[in-house]
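User: Fold this; tokens only.

Assistant: Input:
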Amino acid sequence: MNRKSSITIAGYLLLVFFAGVGIGALGDRLYLARPVNATSSPEAYRQKMVAELQRRLQLRSDQVSRLNSILDGTRTRFREIHKRIEPDLDALRNQQNSDIRAMLNDTQRAEFDKWHAEREKQRTQAPRPQ
């Protein structure tokens, strides 16, 4: 075997090796990725956040009380804003659905209405932020 073919073979072996390392690292990253917990309640999220801030920032008890007051105030203001914009959001949803229904034939429209009713049921049964 000549020197040029030996270098080419060594290059291919290194390429395959590093490709394997990269694929292995990506696979490991995907395998170990933590799943998203979409079922946790807003209150559970808040408690976790307060506990983490208390630990990381070494908050005193009076600071924790102030933090909770700030979070309470923010929650109240968020609810007020949400109440004000909810009619606009509903109107936008209704317009979207009307536009979609207008482009469908009768068979598609019936299936869309069925799908939409299922989605509305899920939306109204979903826990609302507290």
